[in-house]
Fold:
Amino acid sequence: LVISKYTLDCQPYGYGTNVTWETSSLRKWINKDFIKAAFSDVEKEMIPTVMVSADKNPEFNTYQGNDTKDKVFLLSIKEANQYFKTDYERRCKPTTYASDRGVFTEGYNGNCYWCLRTAGWTRCTTGVGADGTIGAGGRYVDNQLAVRPAFWINLNT
Structure:
């Protein structure tokens, strides 16, 4: 599993109500425009399409949509806890490009809030705060949100 060290861009998650990872404009963007710009043809062949689960929100009974099949995805709350054991490990800074695109950073540490795929409150998606804590309520889906892509890579290709 590869997870970007920094947030790489700033995009809205989606528009409207009841937006899930399955229906989000961010999912479409990350698996079309981002992957096309970020990887060579050889690199794209090393990234398999995988099942991305619609993990439940541990605090809110919000509709998560269906599992999807994607090459690139955002982590869920469950995965953010699984792959980053502490709040400190989840802290993330944006690239200059992401900052130029509108990522808000906290003045005291230069870290940013980054988006997760798990649905939060109505019209919200969850994310990780600048201090590394996971917010199960989230931010509005139509806000510009920092994007920290993840994907699996097949080294045997």
The helical segments are 25-38, 41-45, 77-83, 87-90, 96-100.
